[in-house]
Amino acid sequence: MTDKKAMDKLKGKAKEATGKVTGDRRKEAEGKSDQAKARAEGALGATGDRVKGMKDSLTDDDR
After folding, report:
1. 4 to each of 19, 30, 42, how far by Cα in Å?
2. Cα dist. 17→36, 55, 56 in Å?
3. Which of 4, 11, 19, 40 is most enclosed, with most CB atoms within 10 A?
């Protein structure tokens, strides 16, 4: 996970916790949303890496 994604996830956790403590449901939901976004971006990046690896293995000239 890149530093930006890790920071986004951490900020989301902080927002969620703040929302829970203060009773602000909107802030809590924003925090959960931020965390989900960071997880989705991480999964998308991992999928792209796998696809690149498969492409490289199929086009390798070491046959």
Report:
1. 22, 17, 10
2. 15, 42, 43
3. 19
Question: Phi and psi for 59 in degrees, rounded to 5?
Answer: -105, 10
The model's pTM is 0.66
* 46 vs 6: CA distance, rounded Å: 14
Q: Which two tokens stand for residue 3?
A: 């530093």
Q: How far is CA 46 from the centre of its chain?
A: 10
**Residue 41 buriedness (CB in 10 A; 0-12 / 13-18 / 19+):** middle
